Every structure is written in structure tokens, then in C-alpha cells.
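User: My collaborator sent over this chain with a note saying "see what the structure looks like." That's all I know about it. Can you take a look?
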Amino acid sequence: NKVNGVGSVVYSTKENELKDLIKDFGKNMGLSDQNNPLRAAYYVKALDPQDTIKVAERIDRLDNTYSVEYGEGKIEKLFSFLNGARNVGLVLIGALLFTAMFLISNTIRITILARSREIEIMKLVGATNWFVRIPFVLEGMWIGILGAILPITLVTLLYYNLYTVVQPYLEGELFNLLPLTPFLFQVNGLILLMGIFIGIWGSFMSVRKFLRV
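Assistant: Without extra context I'll predict from the sequence alone. Here is the result:
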């Protein structure tokens, strides 16, 4: 039977289950000296981790299913914590984006005011608005790139140390930290793109608002 929401299924024989149990608890348990009391198992991974409970319930309704284990009670708390952390993170990201755009806009505004005489002369000799705007947009882009260096450095150092300290304790567990690569490259690339976007957008909006010569 096909169960919706399943990403992958791995079959494990009862012999493999016994080997894993002996590996975890040691040979001193005497498990290898008796008949194998275990059952074969299927390790199922949901396409979306948030659907783990629903997938487990669907599997439990199948015929010939002896028992379904998915960390009941713990996984609900984990997803609740992750959802709360995600919402808090989104609020913080929004606040940081607003702050960054505000600072960049003010920086560009000061630059425009300092060069207002030059801009006025450029307009008088026929320079278009875009010709005047482009240097400020490029300046905003560079400000965004330079501003992204600090968070990229902090994220790299923090996650590297977290991975080095925590990951050894998570080996063999249900949840593991993402590998350093390509995760750090993806996150740092996203931060860099966000810095460039914020710099260009902030400078563009500032020029659009204050370039009236």
C-alpha cells in the first residue's frame, strides 16, 4: 500500500535489528545467546518533517502493522519549539532588514546632500535621472557587501563551533545538525545577496525620494 507523504523507506531484517541492539547495548547483554525476539522493521522518512505524525498515523492504520514509533510526545514539543523559533527569527530578520535599509538610506541621503551642487550642475548640462542615480546605487551595493562581511563571519564561526561541539553527541540520533558544507556556503551566499539587495534598494529609494534638483 502506498502512503502519502512518505519520502523514503528502508527495510531492516530482524537479524539486522538484533545486530544494532547488540551494538548499542554491548555483547554483555547476552542477546546473541538466545533466540531473536525482535521483528523486522521499516524506517520511514516523511517528505515534510512536519507531516511525521500524520504519516505515522497512516502507517498505523495499515494491515499487518505491529507498532509504529516516532517519538510520540517529544516530536510534538520539538516541532512546537521550532515553529516558535522560526516565528521569532522572522520577526528579528524583518527588524534587521528595516534597520539596515534605514541606515543605508540615511548614508546615501547624506552623500546626496553633500554632492547636491554637483548633481545640480549635472542636471543642468543634460544628465538624466538614471545617470545621476547609478553611482549612488552602486555605492549602496558596496555598502551592503561590506555590511554582510560581519554577519557572514559571525555565522561561520558560531555554526562551526556549534557543529564541532554538539554533533558528536548526536551521532546515531533521529536529528542531526546539517553538515558544514554546503550549508554554510548556502547561508553565507544568502546573507551576501540580502546585503546587496538591501544596499541597492535602500539607496534607490533614498535617491528617488531626495533627488529633486
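A starting point for your reply to your collaborator: Helices lie at 14-25, 52-60, 74-114, 116-124, 129-170, 180-210.
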